[in-house]
Specification:
- The complex is a heterodimer of chains A (about 375) and B (about 350).
- Chain A folds into 3 domains: about 130 residues, Translation factors (Elongation Factor Tu (Ef-tu), domain 3, Beta Barrel); about 120 residues, Rossmann fold, CATH 3.40.50.80; about 80 residues, Ubiquitin-like (UB roll), CATH 3.10.20.
- Chain A has 9 helices and 19 strands.
- In chain A, strands 4-3-6-1-2-5 form a 6-stranded antiparallel sheet, with helices on one face. Chain A has a 5-stranded parallel sheet with strand order 9-8-7-10-11, sandwiched between helices. In chain A, strands 13-12-19-14-17 form a 5-stranded mixed sheet, with helices on one face.
- In chain A, helix 5 links the parallel strand 7 and strand 8.
- The longest helix of chain A is centred in the first third of the chain and has 14 residues.
- Chain A is globular and about 65 Å long.
- Chain B has about 350 residues and is mainly α.
- Chain B has one domain.
- Chain B has 14 helices and 2 strands, in the order ααααααααααβαααβα.
- Chain B has a two-stranded parallel ribbon.
- The longest helix of chain B has 29 residues.
- Classes of the chains: A alpha/beta (about 375), B mainly alpha (about 350).
Chain lengths: ~375, ~350
């Protein structure tokens, strides 16, 4: 997902806090009072107060389906704005660890309150925490909105919004945006889910249908109707090739639709949002050559053999900072943005995104992105 | 004794020892959670409150009692910041939390030693090459002769005085340690590199002086001398305390010193054994352990430098039992007893070698 800057004007709170924060980060000021001390003091005064962090208070929790909840959030003044379809990173501390996941906003852009709609993932750390432990009144830390899966300022004549399962969330924000912008041309919203009981936002959509004449809604239940195939979609929306399409859903679903676009040589634009935050790459066997992307230095290299990443990087001509080379000093520690590594000392294999790893004792077990 | 004799363990026993130490480590590392983060955050809160309280007493207090209280509170803050918080956070003991304010590679502390230079001289050099003569620059800090294997020079006559001065200005000793002045004067370090290192040290020291000896005294207006003297004494107390604790970690009677050639091709188990025999513990209360940054558990710290330090008291009995099982020396004692042996060592090696009969070990 590329994050693009949509040049959102800064809020009054940002204008006020930015110079203060910059001053506190000056090394001479920092040696007297640390930014973290100021932040902690502000938090002690009021949990929503911060110089740098968007925090939101949970004001309402709605059960959408058996395994999906919507969290309505009241942001503090540092929140800028979002465009329909964008996502935020939600950060929560779970058992002492900072856990961050990406969720699309389902609320209407410009609304006073934000909403994220979260489906419980089997074994998911954050989704289960939000479902089981988050209560009204809790405070969640958020990033600003990001993402380029958005509607343009100039809306096309014919639109298709296509979603499956919990991929409906950014699409819901788009529908709300289109209604608010009084879109009066031709809008088809095609949604696929297992059963009527799994239909997220069913009630809200029923309500919307009454007051939004441009909207044509098609819901496909995969448990009762035939399996969703490109042909089903083509049959339901025959003028696919004339519509600008925005799509979000499970990877397999989106790949199938992309295939349809390719096979039928459809020229109309197809925008898609990969719903899973980072596609989990299956761990390859030790020693398999993989590509390591060093994001900060914009250099890539391919691994050879099962050596630690530090050795691999040096072999490729890079010279990462390092010290002991045996996993003690952490000089070579860097953030692995995505991918799977094996800790050569413990044998532990980890795929967690944004994880600190030591290059000297980590071996690549999938393609990696590092902040080197 | 000159160098550590090979330990009595066979290759299989070393490997077995390694596995058992790893198991002790895993037991704690797989159990890290909220309680560990809560502990370090509590320490940070106490440290901040102590600093604010101490500075307030020095600024606004009246009379000598409030001055003494202010000095003690500020010294307490600096000790907590340097020992239980700074030293431990910079070892990466809390990197697993993902909290950017507890990140080992960006943390900076309230002492004349630059954080980045500390990470190099301490985490890289000292913790990797612990007690290897010629590699571990903490062995006498290039100032003191701590073993008969170090060549005696006439300047060592002044060793007791040098030791006293190092204790009084310990933060500058630690701060200038990574300059490697000796290497530079022998032409083994390029001038540019030395200048860059010197610049870091001077800048950090200037920041500390600006804060403690210029800004805060100036803010106190007519109380400036009171604040200046208070800040100086707080720094002095911190220097003395950290000096005593740190010297008891590796220079007590019975710690082993190694030759580089004996430590090549070390396995993890060999490394564990070197860390164990090169470190010594201090006994004391929970408060004592916290005030020492848990360096009172130097052995456990050297075995597991990135384990949250407040867990050391929990693993110490297991390590001690393991030592008993393998017939290894677990060096521990009271602060007074251990420091006494450190002083004995410093005084012993003040004298030229021909007059020394043997190291008391």
């Amino acid at each position: 997902m590329t994050v693009i800057d949509h040049n959102v004007p800064s809020t009054w709170a940002q204008t006020l806090t930015a110079p203060l924060k910059a001053a506190l980060q000056n090394p001479w000021v920092e040696s007297i009072v640390r930014l973290s001390a100021v932040e902690d003091s502000l938090r002690a005064l009021h949990p929503m107060l911060s110089l740098s962090e968007v925090r939101t208070r949970v004001v309402r929790i709605a059960q959408e389906t058996a395994d999906t909840k919507t969290f309505v959030l009241q942001p503090n003044a540092l929140w800028s704005a979002a465009l329909a379809g964008q996502f935020v990173r939600v950060r929560v501390e779970i058992k002492g660890r900072q856990v961050e996941r990406v969720y699309s906003l389902s609320s209407r852009p410009g609304a006073r309150r934000l909403a994220i709609t979260v489906k419980r993932q089997p074994g998911g750390l954050l989704s289960n925490h939000l479902h089981d432990h988050t209560r009204v009144g809790d405070v969640l830390a958020l990033s600003q909105a990001a993402g380029d899966f958005v509607l343009p300022a100039q809306l096309p004549e014919k639109i298709l919004l296509l979603s499956a399962g919990s991929g409906i969330t950014p699409v819901m924000a788009m529908l709300r945006d289109l209604q608010a912008r009084q879109y009066a041309c031709d809008l088809v919203f095609f949604h696929a889910c297992r059963t009527p009981a799994d239909a997220i936002f069913a009630q809200a959509l029923d309500g919307m249908a009454l007051s939004f004449p441009a909207l044509k809604r098609i819901t496909h239940f995969t448990a009762t109707a035939a399996r969703l195939t490109p042909d089903t979609l083509h049959w339901a929306v025959p003028d696919l090739d004339q519509r600008a399409t925005w799509m979000c859903g499970p990877s397999a679903f989106m790949e199938a639709v992309h295939g349809l676009w390719q096979d039928a040589a459809i020229a109309a634009p197809l925008h898609s949002e990969r719903f899973a935050t980072t596609p989990l790459l299956p761990a390859s066997s030790p020693g398999t050559p993989v590509t390591v992307r060093c994001a900060a230095s914009a250099q890539d290299f391919t691994t050879r053999g099962g050596d630690a990443l530090l050795v691999q990087a040096e072999r490729a001509g890079l010279s990462p900072k390092h010290g002991c080379r045996i996993g003690i000093c952490r000089s070579c520690q860097c953030t692995k943005t995505s991918g799977t590594v094996e800790n050569l000392q413990t044998g532990e294999v980890s795929s967690a995104p944004n994880e600190l790893i030591r290059l000297c004792i980590s071996a690549a077990r999938s393609d990696l992105t590092l902040d080197l | 004794m000159s160098f550590a004799k090979p330990h009595p363990l066979s290759r299989e026993q070393v490997d077995q020892f390694e596995r058992e130490v790893n198991a002790i480590r895993d037991g704690v590392m797989n159990d890290l959670g909220q309680a560990d983060v809560d502990h370090i955050r509590r320490m940070i809160r106490i440290c901040r409150a102590s600093e604010v309280g101490g500075r307030a007493l020095l600024h606004f207090g009246v009379g000598p009692l409030s001055w003494v209280a202010g000095v003690l509170a500020l010294a307490n803050a600096k000790i907590l910041d340097n020992m239980e918080i700074g030293h431990n956070v910079m070892h990466g003991q809390y990197d697993w939390t993902g909290d950017p304010t507890l990140n080992s590679q960006t943390f900076e502390w309230d002492i004349a030693c630059d954080g980045e230079q500390w990470r190099h001289s301490h985490n890289v050099t000292h913790h990797t090459y612990t007690n290897i003569l010629g590699k571990d620059r903490d062995l006498g800090y290039s100032l003191l002769r701590m073993t008969e294997a170090q060549r005696w020079k006439p300047r060592h006559w002044f060793q007791p005085l040098a030791n006293l001065l190092l204790a009084l200005g310990f933060q500058y000793g630690v701060g200038s340690h990574d300059l490697e002045i000796g290497r530079y004067t022998h032409g083994a370090m390029p001038k540019e590199e030395f200048k860059a290192r010197l610049n870091r040290f001077v800048t950090k020291t200037a920041k500390q002086w600006f804060k403690d000896y210029l800004l805060f005294p100036a803010l106190a207006l007519w109380s400036a001398p009171r604040v200046l003297a208070g800040n100086f004494c707080a720094n002095l107390i911190r220097n003395l305390w950290t000096y005593v604790v740190i010297f008891c970690g590796h220079f007590t009677e019975g710690v082993a010193i190694y030759r580089e050639e004996d430590t090549r091709n070390e396995t993890r188990g060999d490394w564990y054994l070197r860390q164990l025999s090169g470190s010594s513990n201090l006994t004391g209360s929970r408060l004592f352990h916290i005030m020492s940054g848990h360096l009172s558990h130097q052995i456990e710290h050297h075995l597991f430098p990135d384990m949250p330090a407040h867990r050391y008291p929990e693993v110490a009995p297991k390590i001690q039992a393991l030592c008993e099982k393998y017939g290894l020396f677990y060096n521990t004692g009271s602060l007074f007893k251990q420091y006494w042996t450190v002083m004995a060592r410093i005084l012993t090696y003040t004298l030229p070698p021909k007059k020394v009969s043997a190291l008391p070990s």
